[in-house]
Amino acid sequence: MTTRSRLAKIVAVTALGALLLSACGSGGDSESGGDGKKETIEMWFWGAPPAHQESLKTNLVDKFNASQDKVTLEVTFNERVDSNIQTALSANGGPDIVYGSGPSFVSPFAKAGKLVNLDEYSKKYGWGDRILEPIYQSGTVDGSLYALANSINTVGIFYNKAVLDELGQEIPTTIEELETVLTAAGDAGLYPSVTGNKGWQPVNENYSSMFLTAVAGPDAMYDVLNGDAQWTDQPFVDAVEMSAKWYQNGFLGGGQYLNLNFNESMQLLADNQSPFFFGPTLAFQFATEFFNDENGNVDDLGFIPFPTVGAGLEDDLFTLATTASFSINAASKHQDEAAEVIDFMMTEDFMKIMTEDWPGYWGVPLKGLELDPANFTGLSATYADAINKIIPAVEDGRFGYFTGTFFPPQTQQELVNIDMVWLGQQDATSFLESVEATFASELESGAVPPIPKP
Amino acid sequence: MRKSREQSLRMMPGNVVLVVLAFTALLPIFLVFLNSLKTAPEVVRNPLAFPAVLDWGNYVEAWKYAKFGTGFKNSVLLTGTTILVVLLTAAPAAYVLAERKIKAARPVMVYLMVAMTVPIQLFLFPLYAVFAKAGLISNVFAVGIIIAAINLPLAIMLLRTFFLGIPKELPEAATMDGANTFQVLRHILLPAVSPGLITVGIIVGLNAWNEYLISVTFLQSESSYTATLGFLSLTGTFAVDQGVLMAGAAILILPIVVLFLIAQRSFVDGLVSGSVKG
Predict the structure, then answer these.
(1) Most buried residue, A138, A227, A236, B238, by CB count within 10 Å?
(2) pLDDT tens across A393-433, in order?
(3) Which residues of A touch B255 (CB under 8 A)?
(4) pLDDT at B70 > cutoff 50
């Protein structure tokens, strides 16, 4: 066979493939396309598994579009949404509704005029009256609203009641009780707890936030984030040292922290290999795969806050975090409609239907919200119960700060490196000296987002 | 008989190495297919175990939610655009540089070599701004041109070596017979460098098919997603259905495997001749 005929063969095969695939592709187009007569407003979202994509389509896209005769909402799922939005905003492009990763993300774009000031929309829709004050404040820049968080999130303890029963232990309410159960589980050949950062080191931020909240407490964190205290102060040293001790004695991941990811951890919890999984309430969204009616173990899973450790701290402290935030692109031609979409998502009705389909990601931060777990099925009821504990705690000021939500970016990254202390490569004091230096520089440059007072 | 046995013994170490290499190459693909038939908890529990029940539904979900129908069409259009643009522009450029038809041939060569070393991230933002202004975001053909531009320096350098291998007498004879430059290129030189064109086509085609960074940045509407982007849209923050994800990976792999099996001689010949010439 000559090279020319080989070339022709490759071209022919490729062309045939293109033809066949084009035929297959026509169906996909009609599914994803918008209405030709209406203008499209875009929202870019994280990648999501099919069930979650379907849930957002049914409960947001279809319902919103049914209420409209001028625009069509189109949601695009993309696993690089964070960096894509940053590139697009910088180039005065991008979607109408800006999906962001929280206050640290919002502040620089708001200051650069890339996001719409939402104060007028806030008045129009009454967001200030509806949204939890600390969460509302976290979306402000220089006193004006630029973003609303879609969901409240906290780091705490998922427990398996069946394992606790097997160990002859109660659900712990104090740090001493928790340590007793962890030790008992280890002695019984189980993982004291399951969790880990396999494949994604930033998972560490869950634990740096959790220990800072439980050991140093809200007021100390508030002070340090406002520059009124030093990161090298004793409460923070104690928090880092305690996390290192827990890592080293196996309480945190049972010696397998580096070999476990969230999915594997939840699987082990469901397989009764551990009494506890330390993680964010976000984890409810995949816990449903392991705790469900089919497996008959829904009632085994529960969620409690991490007990307080520091002297004089109130009980039931929660690490305050948000999963994502929504803003409006200053370059959008459909700002009013984009605000309407955001308002649609900031309602109790939306929260309820999303929680039923997709628990863990749509804890809309509404004031005075109290869900009736009886109105939910499966783990959605457990999640509703967790939300019922978190919202009053936030209203009472019983919250610390999640690094990924409230810390400026470089300080946040510094705290992700807390595993250097855990692995014995650095001591807590020198680690915090480095955090202090980074934070001081970010505080001076105005990179610290607004910190709501506890 | 004895000679044949000795020969077999002599070849055994080589064969063992080949079997090991084949095993390590095929095992991941096998695991993808194996896990694509399992439920998500089954995959997480033990990725090496066989499925309790074959769950073909993962393929249906992956095809539907990753929108592979549209994705493959766009991947083919993007790859085709890239190959076409590269071959149409790299071949004449390589000829000009090989024959030193311009005075600045050497500086141009240096420029091309430098261009190959510059990371694309440097151009990403300004390029996005220009494309956004021109309304070319989510345009598969426009992205094909960007990827072609990225691949052009390598393609030109590679094709130049093929042009250098052609005896000078060949184009000279054609010129003496009255052929103009275009005719010499079209009827004499391009057929002579067709192995090079295949090599470049394959390399650039694979690069374009597998390209991620440019596609994910510039292709924003789902109707413009390539198969790779559609596949990655199934990946959530923490929530991932591993069974569906593996089915998506299997669907993504299949066309390349089929294409390779159909045209494997051309692939191997092209890459081998490219490696010798290059």
Answers:
(1) A138
(2) 999 999 999 998 999 989 999 999 999 999 999 999 999 99
(3) 17, 21
(4) yes
Q: Give B-chain residues touching A270 at CB under 8 angstroms.
A: 41
pLDDT at A83: 87
**A366 beta partners:** A131
What pTM was computed for the model? 0.82
Residues A173-209: tens digit of each pLDDT: 999 999 999 999 999 999 999 999 988 888 999 999 9
Q: Which residue of A25, A48, A93 is in closest CB contact with B72? A: A25
Contact residues for A189 (Cβ-Cβ < 8 A; gap 6+):
none
| DSSP letter assigned to residue A259 | G
With bands split at pLDDT 50, 70 and 90, how would you rate the model's confidence at A24? very low
CA distances in angstroms from A125 to A121, A146, A345, A348, A368, listed in the order given: 6, 14, 12, 14, 17
Dihedral sign from CA coordinates of B36, B41, B46, B50: negative
Task: Please tell me which residue of chain B has the smallest CA distance to A324.
Answer: B237
Say yes or no: ipTM exceeds 0.90.
Answer: no
Sign for the CA dihedral angle at B71, B73, B74, B75 comes to: positive
Give the CA angle between residues B133, B138, B140 to the nearest 5°.
Answer: 115
Distance CA A304, CA B235 (A): 28
- What mean pLDDT do residues B149-161 have? 93
Rounded-to-integer distance, Cα A106 and Cα B167, Å = 63
CA dihedral B192, B193, B197, B199 (to 10 degrees): 120
C-beta of residue A35 within 8 angstroms of C-beta of residue A67: no
Tokens of A234: 């004793």
> Residue B128 is nearest to which of A31, A79, A87, comparing CB atoms?
A87
Name the residue among A345, A364, A336, A328 with its Cα closest to residue A147: A328
d(CA A174, CA A314): 11
